[in-house]
Amino acid sequence: MSLDVLPHFRGGRPEDAPALWELRTRCVRELCRSHYPPEVITRWAASPPPPRYPGLIAEGGCVVADDAHGRLLGYGILVLQDNEVDALFVAPEQAGKGLGQAVLARLLALADPQRDVLLSASLNAVAFYQRAGFLDEGEQAYPHPSGITLAGRRMRRPAASALR
User: Fold this and answer.
1) How far apart (Å, rounded) are the C-alpha atoms in residues 56 and 62?
2) 67-114 pLDDT, tens per residue?
3) Each residue of 19-28: pLDDT tens digit?
4) What is the DSSP secondary-structure string of 130-143?
5) Minimal CA–CA distance to 27: which of 89, 109, 71?
């Protein structure tokens, strides 16, 4: 990992929801604009968190990376019952330094090793997930709650037992 700061990893708490959503919104604005048109970014970034967001965080599948001063560096959410990565975001200034892979590794450690891990990848994140062993299952049109349809890719990482 070539991070400028050493992250501290912890489980997410429901009260983290506003800060996590703020980081997600910043990432949409700064990191996704390379693959989506401005009108999509504007509507996507303006959407409020879904009502279930604090509950997802509370279920135990959320990993948060903070720096030594408690500043949020990144996070990920694994929906445990579905074995599905729901979110993974790192602060734009940390992108490409290994933090995303470190968060993903911690999410995968929470996943059921007997089941495939699923996710819907934004177009800018496909190569990131492929480097982590996810297979591209094809195009996906996600009907976002903001009223837009987001182009993405459905991805799957075979169960650990299938990799042996």
Assistant:
1) 8
2) 999 999 999 999 999 999 999 999 999 999 999 999 999 999 999 999
3) 999 999 999 9
4) HHTTPEEEEEEEEE
5) 89
Distance (Å, rounded) from C-alpha 57 to C-alpha 63? 9
Tens of pLDDT, residues 9-46: 999 999 999 999 999 999 999 999 999 999 999 999 99
Instruction: Show Cβ contacts of residue 35 under 8 Å, excluding neighbours closer than 6 positions.
Output: 122, 123, 124
Helices (H), the chain: 17-31, 38-46, 53-58, 99-110, 126-131
- Torsion angle in degrees (nearest 10) through CA of 86, 135, 151, 61: 0
Say how far apart CA 23 and CA 77 lie, in whole Å.
13
Helix, strand, coil shares of the chain, percent, nearest 5, are: 35, 30, 35
pLDDT tier for residue 142 given thresholds of 50, 70 and 90: confident
